[in-house]
Amino acid sequence: MTRATSRSFNTALTELGQAAGVPLPECTLRAQDLSIDSRFRAAEGAAAALAAGAGIANEIAQARGQSPGTIELASRHVEASLLSFAHLRFNDPQAAPAARLEPESRTAVAGFFATADNRWIYLHPGFPHNTAGLLQLLAVDDDRAAVRDKVAGCRAELLEDEIAAAGLCGAMVRTAQEWDESAAGNLLDTCPVVDIVRIGDSDPEPFPTDHARPLAGCNVLDLTRILAGPTCARTLASYGATALRVSAEDLPSIPLFVTDTGFGKRACHLDLKTKVGRAVLQKLVGEADVFSQGYRSGAMDRLGFSPDEVASQRPGIVYVSINCYGHEGHWSSRPGWEQLAQTVTGMAAQQGADRTDGVPTLLPVAVNDYTTGYLAAFGTLVALQRRARNGGSYWVRVSLARTAMWLRNLGLRPNTGRTPFRVRPLAEAELERMSSHMDSTWGELRYLRPAVELSNVVVNWQAAPVPLGSHSPSFSSKKPG
């Protein structure tokens, strides 16, 4: 069933335009039956983030000589994009990246646990060193009963603080009201969902009028991991940007996520702990238009790549910062993941309240990760447009928890009355219609196309994903040395 564009989509799109200080064109969202088992308006929020970015890309295309285009999205395609890694299909499954295992399948120190003060806490094992750290902090073996018993003797907020002090990942379950009334939540609520700050002066850099794709000739440095950050650069690449993903051989990764977010990108390794690695990155900064990083607050500053330093090296740069809990206050340096953003902001509490047992529950999609990536891409497009018209260097800031608050505030779907909450899962044949195929390192690969459609511009990727470190540290097509 297809319905008219929803009111919550229009509300979300209007809010994004106001946050970024830009008027946004009309967009059509083909609102269809839900595929996500949640009353949160994930489709409308993600669609608004995508449509906002497409609106700016459309204006940039017109500045480059294209005729005006129309923007359309289908809600079920948007919903599918919030779990796009799960929709990859490999012609040779044996050559495919390893399947992603849920945290609870990898270790006992993962998931929701009841505490001594009748609260709940979510433990996130992250990568292997994080798992070992949590087990050491709790002084237990990797045994679910042992973890459950130990956590049952702890007070939730005290354990949360101990986890944060150790640089590990875990958070106490809060209701939306509890988060909003907390110091961290209150501070985050004062920040725009997409924060775009001018941090330096430079001459305008107009887009060439060459009838090219909106971001053709734009170089993006992608120093991010997992989903939100890489999704930003992947989205920019769908509009024609040249993206270079910079990682390090000693940093852990999730191969399936690397593949999912690697479309349209080159990939190199640099060791930024060495002078040589930092010197190479400084050279790349001089050639870049966008510097996107997703490390915890202060990490890039210590390496000499703070927003001010990068803007000094390359006047006119758009610096993008993506984290979990925002960029100000004492929570800003805490490591976080999708699950933790849902946990602290009230999403998990509400999702659980909609179930019979009331146990905190995660949404079945990575709604904050992917939507935050789309929002970061929108902010980047706005900043690039401002640079073209007025000059300047810009700092774009987004966070998973701020995105969660924004999505949450779009309201819940009704579960009673004339419009009951119903779900129709995505079918394989339906996903095939949303997908395209290309050759890759892993053989023929089926992938989900971008959910946004622009009538005057091809929105898709021209290069297949590659394993990390496959290329030299260059925006050109040179092979590694």
Q: How would you characterize this protein structure?
A:
This protein has helices at 7-20, 42-63, 75-81, 103-106, 128-138, 144-152, 156-165, 176-181, 183-189, 228-238, 255-260, 275-287, 299-302, 307-313, 338-345, 347-353, 367-390, 400-408, 428-433; strands spanning 2-3, 28-32, 71-74, 89-90, 111-114, 120-123, 170-172, 195-200, 219-223, 242-247, 265-269, 290-293, 318-323, 393-399, 435-440, 443-448, 452-454. The chain has a domain at 2-96 and 187-329 and 364-454: Crotonobetainyl-coa:carnitine coa-transferase, domain 1 (Rossmann fold), CATH 3.40.50. The N and C termini lie far apart (54 Å). The mean pLDDT is 94. α2 (42-63) crosses α3 (75-81) and α10 crosses α17. With 481 residues, it is α/β, with parallel strands linked by helices. It is globular, with a radius of gyration of 22 Å. The protein contains 19 helices and 17 strands.
Key words describing this protein structure:
4-stranded mixed sheet, Rossmann fold, alpha/beta
Structural class: alpha/beta
C-alpha-based Rg, rounded? 22 Å
CATH superfamily of one domain: Crotonobetainyl-coa:carnitine coa-transferase, domain 1
Largest sheet: 7 strands, mixed
Just give the CATH class of one domain: Alpha Beta
Discrete helix count? 19
Biggest β-sheet: strands ordered side by side in the sheet: 8-14-13-12-9-10-11
Oligomer: single chain
> β content, as a range?
15-25%
Query: Which consecutive residue ranges, at least 5 long each, have pLDDT under 50?
Result: none
Gap from first CA to last CA = 54 Å
- Tell how many strands the DSSP assignment holds: 17
Helix content: 25-40%
